[in-house]
């Protein structure tokens, strides 16, 4: 069985498990507010009493947070476990929830995946712990990703407002101006490839996250969810803008057929054959560590716009910390979650390279004035911070986005390897997502 097929089946099982748990979760209110009716007044008592908290996360900056938390609260023992990245952890988490044992007290969950846990009521509503006071603490994109009406399913850990990373050395050599619109981007792609057939404006072999982020920026809102009632529509203006532009790049073979995060990708970023990236603001650390030889060559600019003169961005990536309903020490779990995502915990993570979801860190002079030697001394955080303010509102993911993303290459991905058009691929993705959702008990319209 291929890795892709395995991932798809595991994701499907995770969603089935979530829905199967819904009835049980709805039928019991014993843990709705934590053990014994937890609330803000119980947190201090729990910290004084102490105990053990198990955290499942892969984010490396949490190691320092654990050390700082245990130093501040010596009676609390925090065990940080890497149970796998992304889908692997989500599958393990759903299996633990279904088995009724082995679930962590805190789990890292990416924004796109949070819905599948929220719809199954398998994570705590943190508003009962006082989390509503953080409504203005976080930037709008991450906060919208973790909230649903009055419910708060997690606290934002970081964010990924998008920016345009470009190889200035390559651009200067070939007289390319930094594109401010996606039409100019296509022209730059043509000019670069004509000047040197080995150079591509960027790479793309089909990526669900990148596609939905650019549709988001273009004004598309393909997903709407109200409980188990869902609408999927990839026939709006945003999706049309994206497919019209990206189809030109595919038809003219202006995209490097290189998979992101592969050795070939890192090589392309280093030697200039991949000249730009439109990606989340968490990318600098990856360039510094993975493409060290190109230090000084790269710069950052605002994302090109779909309409000249606009200032609209979108999120690409980012994670939250959630407290599973099955957690044993919910008050301590919330205390750690709060510490890791706000105040000193958030600041220490930013200092270690995480991109902030908190307004205070995002707007601090120290953050904004940070010079990046990798980008020739550029104060790139100013561009990232503006992008965070310009993220388009009202974006939603499917409550089974993990599964939907797993079938992206079976549908939209065909446009990269066959005569299938991107618009046809999006339609096929929509149809497959609608069918699957209805099979799993959702009411899905199109």
Give an account of the 3D structure.
A five-stranded mixed beta sheet has the order 2-1-3-14-6, with helices on both faces. Strands 12-7-13 form a three-stranded antiparallel beta sheet. Strand 4 (147-148) and strand 5 (151-152) form a beta hairpin. Helices cover 46% and strands 13% of the residues. The protein starts with a helix and ends with a strand. With 446 residues, it is an alpha/beta fold. The chain has two domains: 3-159 and 317-361, D-Maltodextrin-Binding Protein, domain 2 (3-Layer(aba) Sandwich), CATH 3.40.190.10; 162-314 and 394-445, Periplasmic binding protein-like II (D-Maltodextrin-Binding Protein, domain 2), CATH 3.40.190. Helix 2 packs across helix 13, helix 3 runs antiparallel to helix 14 and helix 9 (208-217) crosses helix 10 (237-251).
């Amino acid at each position: 069985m291929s890795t892709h097929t395995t991932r798809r089946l595991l994701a499907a099982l995770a969603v089935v498990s979530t829905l199967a748990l819904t009835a049980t979760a709805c039928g019991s209110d014993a843990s709705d507010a934590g053990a014994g009716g937890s609330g803000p007044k119980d947190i201090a008592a729990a910290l004084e009493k102490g105990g053990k908290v198990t955290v499942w996360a892969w984010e490396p900056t949490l190691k320092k947070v654990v050390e700082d938390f245990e130093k501040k609260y010596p009676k609390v023992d925090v065990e940080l476990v890497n149970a796998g990245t992304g889908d692997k952890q989500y599958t393990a988490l759903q299996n633990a929830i279904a088995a009724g044992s082995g679930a962590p007290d805190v789990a890292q969950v990416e924004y796109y995946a949070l819905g599948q846990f929220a719809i199954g009521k398998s994570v705590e509503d943190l508003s009962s712990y006082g989390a509503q006071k953080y409504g203005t603490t976080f930037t709008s994109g991450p906060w919208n990703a973790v909230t649903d009406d009055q419910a708060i399913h997690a606290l934002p850990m970081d964010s990924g407002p998008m920016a345009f990373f470009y190889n200035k050395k390559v651009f200067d050599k070939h007289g390319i101006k930094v594109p401010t619109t996606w039409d100019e981007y296509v022209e730059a792609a043509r000019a670069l490839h004509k000047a040197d057939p080995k150079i591509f404006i960027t790479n793309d072999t089909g990526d669900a996250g990148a596609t939905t982020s650019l549709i988001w920026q273009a004004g598309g809102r393909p997903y709407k969810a109200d409980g188990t009632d869902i609408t999927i529509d990839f026939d709006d203006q945003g999706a049309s803008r994206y497919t019209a532009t990206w189809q030109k790049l595919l038809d003219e073979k202006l995209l490097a057929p290189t998979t992101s995060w592969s050795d070939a990708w890192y090589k392309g970023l280093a030697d200039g054959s991949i000249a730009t990236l439109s990606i989340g603001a968490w990318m600098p650390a990856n360039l510094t560590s993975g493409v060290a030889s190109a230090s000084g060559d790269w710069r950052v600019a605002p994302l090109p716009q779909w309409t000249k003169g606009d200032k609209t961005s979108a999120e690409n990536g980012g994670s939250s910390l959630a407290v599973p309903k099955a957690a044993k020490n919910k008050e301590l779990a919330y205390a750690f979650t709060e510490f890791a995502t706000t105040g000193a915990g958030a600041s220490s993570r930013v200092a270690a390279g995480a991109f902030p979801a908190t307004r205070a860190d995002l707007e601090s002079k120290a953050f904004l004035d940070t010079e990046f030697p990798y980008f020739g001394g550029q104060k790139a955080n100013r561009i990232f911070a503006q992008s965070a303010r310009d993220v388009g509102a009202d974006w939603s993911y499917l409550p089974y986005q993990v599964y939907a993303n797993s079938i992206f290459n079976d549908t939209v991905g065909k446009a990269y390897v066959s005569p299938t058009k991107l618009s046809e691929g999006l339609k096929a993705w929509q149809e497959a997502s609608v069918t699957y959702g209805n099979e799993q008990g959702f009411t899905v319209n199109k």
